[in-house]
Amino acid sequence: MNRYLLSGVATGSLALILSGCGGSDGLPQMSAAQPANFGGDCAALATSITGLTGTVITAASTVAGGTVVSNISMPEHCLVTGKMNERVSAVDGGTYYIGFQMRLPKNWNGRFFYQANGGTDGAVSNAVGALGGGPVTSALSKGFAVLSSDAGHQSQTTPFFGLDPQARIDYGYNAVGQLTPMAKNLIKKVYGKAPDRSYLGGCSNGGRHALVAATRYGDMYDGILAGSPGYNLPKAAVAQLWGVQQYATVATATKTTDTTASGTVVTLSQPLPDVSTAFTAAERSMIGAKIVAKCDALDGAMDNWVGNVAACQQAFNVSTDIATCTGARDGTCLTAAQKTVLTNVHAGAKNTAGAALYASFPYDAGISSSGWATWKYSNSTGVGRDPGATAFIFMTPPKTTDTANFLGLPFAMGFNFDTDAPAIFATSGVYTESAMSFMTPKDPVNLRTLRERGGKLMIYHGTADPVFSYNDTISWMDKVSANFNDSGLWTKLYPVPGMGHCSGGPAADQFDMLDPLVNWVENGTVPGTVQAKARGTGTSTIAALINAEVPATWAANRTRPLCPYPQVARYNGSGDAESASSFVCQ
Q: Would you say residue 578 lies in a domain?
């Protein structure tokens, strides 16, 4: 039997009455969620939950309190798995459905959290709602009911689902639209009431999902948290391929083999540049050190950290601040050709006419991180990432249907930025929506539905992100501000200096933005600074929670304030430089 707290029902009804009341900023103020409990048998939910349109519950069980999931201790909860809208594709003959997992705490806080996942989706990640770069807490731990999905296809490592037009649309936006009402209905069947407040959050492609939801589903969510949002993901993928061709011009070695999606190693018809040799780890470390040397003091403290990333773009100059090699490359200099490539990549991808294909990137000390190399070299040439995603998901019609023999590096090297790049805007036959339609926010700066009902949006983005440009996010935020004079009252963007893609790099990358978002949505408390902590060696016994790229000159647990754009953290002149309390946002 479903059970719920009598007090939760009473106050929940009052919450619905108060949710339209105006806040002090003139926008509607939503009321706080009210808790409820589930005291029944989790296993019984597998058969007792019925009436969910197009949905099959495949399993349900109890997970004991204290169980560690994704490195975080969880409260006692029900684990429910299922699938929606199962079908057989008329295009590629494959079977598709929207797979999902829900974790429902026995002691529920009255809130729903949609965990938007990364990459090309394709797998149902643990529905815990992990938060921050090195998460130490989660939405589930806070009492949220959490959902995770595969976004409508069951292929995490290959992009070939893009041959099916419906799978493309489900991945782009429709899975969120289908799952959200189902999840709220399921929650109501378990606890006796629907969630009072609903939140959606994710990083990378999950951040893209978040911004898409902010424009398409502003009526379904009260608070949205977008991390490193690749909201122009098809453009970013094309830019990655453009980068491959740039790096190829300064590569010092070649590759004679490549690997198919099935893992088969094949011999290339001709050797191709090994782009991983374009900039060595030593050279990238040197570049990062030069950026720090030039820009460290711009925030008022010499602390081996660049807090004022915006000012650094004016101060740092590749031509004059990095030595030009006069002899062999030894990690202390760059060749003239390398300097050209470095400048080109940061200026942003272009076609042969000079038209921008994607945004520029800021110079940041995080170029030294291993994640930078992974995204720029490995992911930009691998079948499962940018080459495969561009060929099968983003180009219309798909560039190739030869899935068995598709290779990433040859595709990247042969991509034509004049004739192939426009295919991300195209439609054709059964592909009635272009990638730039189904993958991006419907109307990128029109968040009126979310705003006018009192919803809130928080964004964070690492300034050293090598794949989704921080500058692109800045451009988006500036356009929102121009479109709504009051954008700061319901949207906030938090740059994370030094952080790479979602985490890592020489950065304080451990933080929790869900609590500030909830307080903003439900209590009207406008977030100011958000404290972030480094997670250097010794700050955890869990290896996955250690960031080995925290500089040895820092305190392992250094803290920094994350400031809402356009403010930056500045040293107060006298405090402990390892402490966030010694910095102010100005």
A: no
Q: Rounded to 5, what percent of the chain is helix, strand, coil?
A: 35, 20, 45
First CA to last CA across the chain, in angstroms? 54
Closest CA to 139 of 56, 200, 189: 200
Q: Are residues 255 and 202 in the same domain?
A: no
**Overall residue count recorded for the chain in this entry:** 586
Considering 420, 437, 454, which residue would you say is the last residue of a domain? 437
Domain ranges, residue 224: 6-231+441-531
* CA atoms of 579 and 87, how far apart (whole Å): 55
Task: Pick the catalytic residue from 121, 150, 274, 465.
Answer: 465
Residues 368 and 458 in one domain: no
Catalytic site residue 501?
yes
User: Is 475 an active-site residue?
Assistant: no
Catalytic residue among 138, 141, 204, 540: 204
Query: Model pTM?
Result: 0.94
Rounded CA separation 289/157 (Å): 35
Per-residue pLDDT of the chain (586 residues; tens, 9 = 90+): 332 222 233 333 333 333 445 665 789 999 999 999 999 999 999 999 999 999 999 999 999 999 999 899 999 999 999 999 999 999 999 999 999 999 999 999 999 999 999 999 999 999 999 887 778 899 999 999 999 999 999 988 899 999 999 999 999 999 999 999 999 999 999 999 999 999 999 999 999 999 999 999 999 999 999 999 999 999 999 999 999 999 999 999 999 999 999 899 999 999 999 999 999 999 999 999 999 999 999 999 999 999 999 999 999 999 999 999 999 999 999 999 999 999 999 999 999 999 999 999 999 999 999 999 999 999 999 999 999 999 999 999 998 878 989 999 999 999 999 999 999 999 999 999 999 999 999 888 889 999 999 999 999 999 999 999 999 999 999 999 999 988 899 999 999 999 999 999 999 999 999 999 999 999 999 999 999 999 999 999 999 899 999 999 999 999 999 999 999 999 999 999 999 999 999 9
Same domain, 90 and 216: yes
Query: Are 397 and 452 contained in the same domain?
Result: no
At 299, list the tokens. 């925030």
Considering its fold, how many domains does the chain have in total?
A: 2
**209 is a catalytic site residue:** no
